[in-house]
Structures are given as C-alpha cells and as structure tokens.
C-alpha cells in the first residue's frame, strides 16, 4: 500500500459479517516508500516477503498476527552489485523448491537471490544488454536453479531464463512483446508453459520445451493486463487484471496456435490401456521412480472358453495324434449327431483297412447293396468289364 504499510485482513470475518466487519487484523508500516510486491512463502505460510520503493526487502513473520516480527534477509547496506543499492525493488518471488531462497529484482536491472539461512545475498546478476527495469520474476517450479526475468523496456522488451549455476548470460531469451513486459507467471502443473503480458495488449502463453520459446496461444485485450496468474487447480485457465478495473478469466485453449505440436502435461496420463484388433491390448504406466515404462502388448481372447481347446489342438499338431483327438471329442460330446461326425473324421485318419467302415457308419450295408445290384443286373456287379478267364467275373468283394 501507499506509505509503506502492509495490512493483514481476515476474509472469514468479512464474509460472516456481510461486509459490516472490515476484518483488519494488523496494519504495520514496513517500508519508507510504497510497497511494490508481496508474497507468502509456499512452504511456511507465516512468512510474508515484501519489497518497496525504499530499496528494501523485508520478511514478515505473522505467526502472531497481532504482533508480527519484521526482519531483513541481509544487510541494509548493499552495493549495486550485492543487493539493490538505491534502486526501487519492483518484484520478488519465493523459490518453489527451496524454502529459504528468495529472489528480488529492481528498476536498476539487478536481480538478487537471497539466502535466508546465510542472511545475505547468494548471487546477483544483471542483463548483459544493460536493460534497466525488471518488472517480474518467476521461478521454474521443477528446476530450483532456473528463474525467469521480465523487463519493462518499450524499446527492447525481453523474457530471459537464467540458470544460477552459470549466471553470466541467460540460456534462453525471447523478445515476446513489441513493448515492455509487465508480468510473468510459470504454470505449476506444466513447467513447460509460461504466461506473459505486456503493454502491447497481448497476453501470451509460451512453450519452453524446445530450445527456442514458441507461442502456444495468444489473447488480445482492449487494455493491457498488468498482472496474470494461473488458476491453482484448473488446467489451462488463467486470470488477468487490467487498468479497466476488471479481472478477466481466460482459457489458453481458445486462441491456440495451430502450428504448435506440444501437448500440455495435464493431457498426459500416468497409466492407461487401449484395445486393438485381434484381441490385442496395449498398456503403459510408470514405475516406482515415476519414469514411464515401455508399452506392453498382450493378446486377450474374446472367448476364453476356447483357450483350452486351442491349447489341445496345438498339442495335437505337434504330436500328430489326430485319431486320439477325435476320440476325446467322441467321449466328451453329448450330441449323437456330433459323435457320428467325429467318428467319421476319425475313420478318415485311420489306415485303409478301416475305411470300409465309413459306409457302415453312414447307415448302408455293402453286402445288401451288392445283392440288390446283382438281382437288378442279372449278374454280379463288375462282370461286364471282367475278363472271361477271370473265375470271379471281375468282381472281388472289398
């Protein structure tokens, strides 16, 4: 607030009273100039960081809201390259992985990383192109050493990703906007996505999965948004505050860049299955360490009752015992017609001396057929073509 005051409110009291109770818990002057940024520690909610136009960064312990404790993360006398000197501290943010690390930046172009355990700045760096006004900071939610810095420079705007292990130069950079960048926000659900808003009336969602940042989606507004924040629990939704005294809700899917092939992480599944033709089942998952496993292929029979029959048939093919297989079918079936069918098939697999039994199983008497044929022809069947010297007349019973 103006005047360097930090005010604590109790929203529960305000809601319960219907707005009659102002809900003010504490109002304490923390800075000598206006307060420019506030943020609670994501690990310890009783720690509130503040920065202001007086070049100071303060940590407020509100464990006892009625009597908060205020202390500085380092010495108040810092040089230009070790702290913020005489510049206005414009933004700050707690590290998302290490609870005692805090970053702050100023309008002199210096970004300082504070180590609250050591009670001093751990490292400070500035833009190699000597840009001055740092407008916003955002820590990578997965990589503790990476931080995004935005610059409010209308002539030379920039979004820079720095790695503190080598803080001489940013390892990723894009202009992003045609005018100064006002705010940035890193997506906690997908660290490859980042929001930025600028004075060119554009709010852009960036993809950082590749070497060069690319536009995932873009929202054009009538007035520029000076602050953007992702919804904490709803993927792809974010809010933007503009100078029209309005907070608007947007979806990054509404104006998606068709040329981007990246799929946000919330569309990915930790495990899943999919069926295919031929009874195939593909499955995937993650192991105990969280790494994706290989895709496993399975054959799932659509009729499990035929699995045993298929195994028996494969064994039959390997041994060649076709008559034995037919006998098992004869013994197990209850249908007489089916039994006769398997009996005939069994006879066909037997040697030639048993083949005449096929006629008998079909219900025919071979001798009766021959007798009727002889009665009709006046001679035994086959005697017309037989040689005269053949005493059997050319016919021999089978």
Automatic annotation (TrEMBL):
GO terms for cellular component: COPII vesicle coat; endoplasmic reticulum exit site. Belongs to the WD repeat SEC31 family. It comes from the Eukaryota. Its main location: endoplasmic reticulum. Gene3D superfamilies: 1.25.40.1030, YVTN repeat-like/Quinoprotein amine dehydrogenase. GO terms for biological process: COPII-coated vesicle cargo loading; endoplasmic reticulum organization; protein transport. This is Protein transport protein SEC31. It is found in: Endoplasmic reticulum. Keywords: Endoplasmic reticulum, ER-Golgi transport, Protein transport, Repeat, Transport, WD repeat. PANTHER family: SEC31-RELATED PROTEIN, SECRETORY 31, ISOFORM D. It holds the Pfam family WD40. SMART domains: WD40. One of its GO terms (molecular function) is structural molecule activity.
